[in-house]
Prior knowledge:
The structure holds two protein chains of two kinds. By secondary structure, chain A is of the alpha+beta class. Chain A has helices spanning 2-7, 14-29, 51-57, 61-64, 81-91, 136-176, 195-200, 216-219, 224-236, 282-319, 326-356, 369-383, 403-419, 477-487, 512-515; strands spanning 33-38, 46-49, 95-102, 108-119, 125-134, 180-184, 190-193, 240-249, 253-263, 274-280, 365-368, 388-392, 398-401, 426-434, 437-444, 491-497, 501-509. Chain A has four domains: 2-134, PAS domain (Beta-Lactamase, 2-Layer Sandwich); 177-280, Beta-Lactamase; 284-359, Helix Hairpins, CATH 1.10.287; 362-520, Histidine kinase-like ATPase, C-terminal domain (Heat Shock Protein 90), CATH 3.30.565. The radius of gyration of chain A is 51 Å and the shape is elongated. By secondary structure, chain B is of the alpha/beta class. Chain B has one domain: Response regulator (Rossmann fold, 3-Layer(aba) Sandwich). Chain B has helices spanning 13-25, 39-46, 62-71, 89-96, 108-120, and strands spanning 5-9, 29-33, 50-54, 80-84, 100-103. In chain B, helix 4 links the parallel strand 4 and strand 5.
Amino acid sequence: MNNLNQVGFSLPDHNLKQEFDLLKQALDASIAGIIITDNQQADNPIIYCNQAFEHISGYQRSEIIGHNCRFLQKEDRNQAVLEKIREAIAKGQRCVVEIRNYRKDGTLFWNELYMSPVKGQDGKVNYFIGVQNDITRRKVAEQQVQSNQAEMERRIEERTRSLKENQEYLSSIVQTVRESLIVLQPDLKVMMVNDHFIRTFKVSREETEGQQLYDLGNGQWDIPELRQLLEQILPTNNPVIDFEVSHDFPYIGKKLMLLNAHRIELEGRYKDQILIAIEDITERRSIEQRKDDFLSIASHELKTPLTTIKGYMQLMNRLLTDESDRKLKSAVEKTSLYVERLNNLISELLDVSRIQSGRIELHKEPFDFDEMVQEAVESILQAQNTHQIEIKGRTECTVKGDESHIAQVVTNLLSNAIKYSPDNHKVEVYLSRVGDYVKAAIVDQGVGVPYPDQQKIFERFYRVSDMQKQFPGMGIGLYICSEIVKNHGGSLWVESKVGKGSTFSFTLPLEAEKGAGGEQ
Amino acid sequence: MNNSKVLICDDDPGILDMLELVLSEEGYQVIPESNSLRVAGLIKDKQPEIVLLDLWMPVLSGDQVLRNLRQNESTANLPVIVFSASTDGRMIAMEAGASDFVSKPFDLDLLINKIHFNLTNKGMS
Lengths: 520, 125
């Protein structure tokens, strides 16, 4: 303290010395670090520090006195607050700063520094008193809070962005799909429509969104079927798929639409909203119709010249006598056979078109099943002489169905049996009654169907590979057979071994009404 | 030999020629006609015993010709056999009042049998 005595504190007597010691002890008792710098000397050295300062800084008094305060900053010299300190020193003002300082062992501590100048009578700053508090814990907590806050903000921002992106993503999907979409509120006000809706129904977004569905475009959406869907069906069946609505719209004309509707069963913002996707199938139906018409006309037009050809062939046949040339006879016979094949192909094409459009016409009447099979076998036997066909068993049953179509199935299966058994000449037909069904099984000993193909041969236009050259065909016969049998409530299947032969069996229910599942 | 008069109306000349040849062979007197609008007049003039009528014909279709004939007292019971290549032809023909139906392409023996049958049963239906 000698130093202090010399420079400012001139203490006149013994009492003062005692008081001074007391003050010094008080300063040492403080938990705040206190230093005094002498600003009259070069580089403002520290001339006093209390015990708390030693404690905070980790330095011994002997290592502190005489140093400029900057030793506490070590290498960390670019702190913004230093400017504030310099300014305060220069101007001789008080200041409070928070500054990063470093203990002797190099660890950081945050120092809350109160600086106040001690001026002489001339107003010149002689000393600065620095009071320091280690606020590291507070600072760390603050920083923690700040960083938590920053992290929170970052997350919120990210979440918001991702939500926005999701929304944009979903919205771009909604706007891009080639199907009209409409979202309704529970009160059937239009919440949103997509671009396709606007284009298809030639409306503007403004006159659509926010309006009552049934009020749109002078009530053009007030369609009885749609009302039924929204008010009766949807509340009990959710979702509704492929609900067909046909409506004649002013301006855009008649539209055939398939609707998918879904009532959103969520709590909160989207509660009870109704999503409707509208597929405009007007064009598709019209194309299907045109295709059917085309096939029907084409088949009719093809059959007309065929009728003439067939007539002349039959005439030729009559004109032939026993004495006629053998080659000529054979030529006429073969030609007749191929005219018949051409006729069958044309009929099959028409049948496929009808089956596909679901317009196969069944005229169901009771008929004698055994007799029908007998007739089909006889007609095949008349048309060829390479194979024997033997009927085994009887059903003794009358079946209700379309006799000509069922006969077509039997004829087709017999023709196949013959066609695919070029090296064996026997085909057998087993008839039986099984429960409340009749069953016919056509058994050949021909080339057989490879196992992987056994299901596929009933598909339209399917051909077992490698067969086309030896056995040409269009791949529609079995498809037609299978569809006809299905339409009667029965089933058609095959069991086969390659090189051993095939058995094609079909069943028909005796109670056509029950078995056909509401057919016709 | 049968020498009944048969009026045949089909817009396709190929079928008309063929049927004329075949039915003449059978001994029939064939009156071929490709224009369905002339059928009613020809029936009046030539008094055929039976008519063979195609269904799909331009301007006046076979079923329309047939309906007109059935409305006229003098031809109400005239045997008319309709033929057609379309699958729903039978239904249309029967609804219009056909005596019989044969689908195209037809079997000549079947057609001739039907002509014979309808001539023999004339007036009984």
